[in-house]
Amino acid sequence: MSCDFLELAVPGVRSMSPYQPGKPIEELAREQGLPVEDIVKLASNENPLGPPPSAVKAMTDSLAELARYPDGSSYLLKQALAEKLNVAPEQLTLGNGSNDVLVLLAESFLDSDGSAIYSQYAFVVYPLAVKAVGAEGIVVPALNYGHDLEAMAAAIKENTRIVFLANPNNPTGTSFSEQQLLEFLDKVPERVIVVLDEAYFEYGIGGDLPNGINLLDRYRNLVVTRTFSKAYGLAGARVGYSISNPEIADVLNRLRQPFNLNLLAQFGAVAALQDDAYMQKSIEINQQGMEFLEQGFADLGLSWISSSGNFITVDMKRDAMPVYEGLLAEGVIVRPVGNYGMPEHLRISIGLPEENRRCLEALARVLA
Ligand code: PMP
C-alpha cells in the first residue's frame, strides 16, 4: 500500500493551506499570449520604481564574491541599520524577508501548549506561522476592517505567548494611532510578546503612524518587524529584520539559520538604506498614485478601505473573482482576497502613473 505523506506530516502542517502569492507576470504572459512588457502587475505590494540603482550596483559589484558564504552575522548591514534607526546592533535580528523573522518568532516562543492572537483580516503569514508549530491561533473579529485592540487585549489567555499586530495591516491597509497602541501595550503582560509588523512603515513617514522603535525602551516585550521588500524596493532580494530588546534578539538568533541572509542581499540592503532620494521618490509616487486611484474608484462608484500602505483594497460590490479574471484578460494582475474572507474585494498595489491609469481603464471596461 502506498503511503499518504500528508497523513505523515505533523498535525500543524496538515492544517495549513499554502500561501497564495500574486500571479507572476511570466505566467500571465504565457496564459494570455501577451508580451511580458504589456502586463501590469499590481498584486504584491512591490515598489513600482524597480530596485534602487545604488543597490543594483552594490549587488553587481559583489558578484565575484559568490563562491564564499555570506557574513553570517551580517555585520555591515547591522551596523548600517543600527546607525539609521538609532538602535544597538544587538537589538537586530535579520531575516530572509521579514516573513522569516515572523516565523522565527513563532518557532521560538510557541508550541502546541501555547496560543497566539491576531486580528480577522490580518496578514496571512501569522496564522500560517502559528499553525506550523501546532499552537492555537485566536482570531479576534476586526473593527471596521482594522484591529480591535481592546478586544485583542481582552482575548489574552494564560497560555498566550504572542500577539501579532500589523500597522498598517495587509490586505486592508488599516492602521492604528500611537495612543491606541500605548493603551494596548499597557494592558499586555510582559510575558506576552507583542509583534508589531511595520512592513509598510516608510510609506507613512510624515503622517501620524506610530514608530514602534520609539516604544522599545518602555516595553521589553515589544518586537518591531520591518522589511526591505516595500519602500526599499528589494522584495526579490529578501531582507527583513526585527528590532527588539537584545534578550529577545538572542533567542531568535539561536534558531536563525546561520546564512539566512544571502551575500547579494546584504550588499544590496546596505546601499538601499543610504539611498534617501530613492526613498523620497517611492513615498511621493505612492501618495500621488493613491490619490489618483481613489479618484478613479470614486468615479466608478466604488468604495475602498482607506489605506496607509502602498496598496488599496476596493469593494467591487459583487463576487470579485470574475472582475479579477476580467482584469487578467486585460493584462492587469491584482490580488483577490477571498482567502481572507473578503470575496467582494480586490487589493490593488499602487503602481507607476501609467500602470495606475491602465488599471483604472481596464477596471472600467470590466465593470461595464
Ligand atoms: N508583513 C506584512 C504586513 C506584509 O504585507 C508582508 C509582505 N506581503 C510581510 C510582512 C512580509 O514581507 P517580506 O517577507 O517580503 O519582508
Q: What descriptive keywords fit this protein?
A:
about 375 residues, alpha/beta, Aspartate Aminotransferase, domain 1, Aspartate Aminotransferase, domain 2, 2 domains, seven-stranded mixed β-sheet, 14 helices
Structural class: alpha/beta
Overall outline: globular
What share of residues are in beta strands?
15-25%
| CATH class wording of the largest domain | Alpha Beta
Strand order of the largest sheet: 2-8-7-6-5-3-4
- Any idea of the CATH topology of the largest domain? Aspartate Aminotransferase, domain 2
Task: Characterize the main sheet.
Answer: 7 strands, mixed
Give the low-confidence spans: none
Number of domains: 2
Total DSSP helices: 14
Mean pLDDT: 96
Which value, in Å, is the CA radius of gyration?
21 Å
